[in-house]
Amino acid sequence: MCGIVGYIGKREAWPILIKGLERLEYRGYDSAGVAIMNSGAISVYKKLGKVSELSKFVKNKSDKNISGLVGIAHTRWATHGEPSDKNAHPHLSMSGDIAVVHNGIIENYLSLKKVLIEKGFKFKSDTDTEVISNLIEDIKKSAKVSFDEAVRLALLEVVGAYAIVVLSKDDPNTIVVAKKGSPVVIGIGKEEFFIASDATPIIEYTDKVIYLDDNEMAIIKNGKLLVKTIENEVKNPYIQKLEMKIEELEKGGFPHFMLKEIYEQPRSIKDSMRGRISAKDGMIKLGGIECHQDKLINAKRIIILACGTSWHAGLEAKYFFEEIAKTPTIVEYASEFRYRNPVIYPDDLVIVISQSGETADTLAALKLAKEKGATVFGVCNVVGSSIPRATDAGVYTHAGPEIGVASTKAFTAQLTVLFLMCIFLADKKEVLSKKEIKKLLIELENIPEKVEKALLCNDSVKKIAEKLKNMKNFIYLGRGYGFPLALEGALKIKEISYIHADGYPAGEMKHGPIALVDENMPVVFIANHSALYEKVVSNMMEVKARKGVVVAIITKGDTNIKKIADYCIEIPETTDVMMPFVASVPLQLLAYHVARLRGCDIDKPRNLAKSVTVE
Ligand code: M6R
Question: Which one of 3.30.70.2740, 3.90.1150.10, 3.40.50.10490, 3.90.550.10 gives the CATH number of domain 457-597?
Answer without folding.
Answer: 3.40.50.10490
